[in-house]
Amino acid sequence: MNEDAPSSERYIKGMSTRRAVLGDAHVDRATAAVTEFDRPFQELITEAAWGHVWSRPTLTKRERSIVTIALLAALGQDDEVAMHVRATANTGASREDICEALLHVAIYAGVPAANHAIKIAKQAFEQMDAEQAA
């Protein structure tokens, strides 16, 4: 993706924000896996999600992280929930923040969605703790 990456200001800002939130290792793996088929999608999310929405100054990265995890949990997007829980190491969202967000999910999107997201978050936190201890 880097070779043919767009050089728009929004793309550059998006890639910087994406790296700040998800970490270089994650973004490097994602960009290394890009093919011609999914290149347009990767460019879209880098510019729109990361370069436009996540880069806006109104909410902090911590606040965006909490909102994103709640939305993904409500939508049942398990892989994305786990990825964004791991990203809390970079966004400043605490485990208490995530717990509170998932309580909102339980009330507004349903107990099963929150219950499943809590399971995913616990697994992600266990993995993060193990990596930190190593």
TrEMBL record:
Residues 41-122 form the Carboxymuconolactone decarboxylase-like domain. Its EC number is 4.1.1.44. Keywords: Lyase. This is 4-carboxymuconolactone decarboxylase. It is an enzyme of class 4 (lyase). It holds the Pfam family CMD. PANTHER family: 4-CARBOXYMUCONOLACTONE DECARBOXYLASE FAMILY PROTEIN (PTHR33570), CARBOXYMUCONOLACTONE DECARBOXYLASE-LIKE DOMAIN-CONTAINING PROTEIN (PTHR33570:SF2). The gene is pcaC. One of its GO terms (molecular function) is 4-carboxymuconolactone decarboxylase activity. NCBIfam families: decarb_PcaC. InterPro entries: 4CMD/NDH-1_regulator, AhpD-like, CMD-like, Decarb_PcaC.
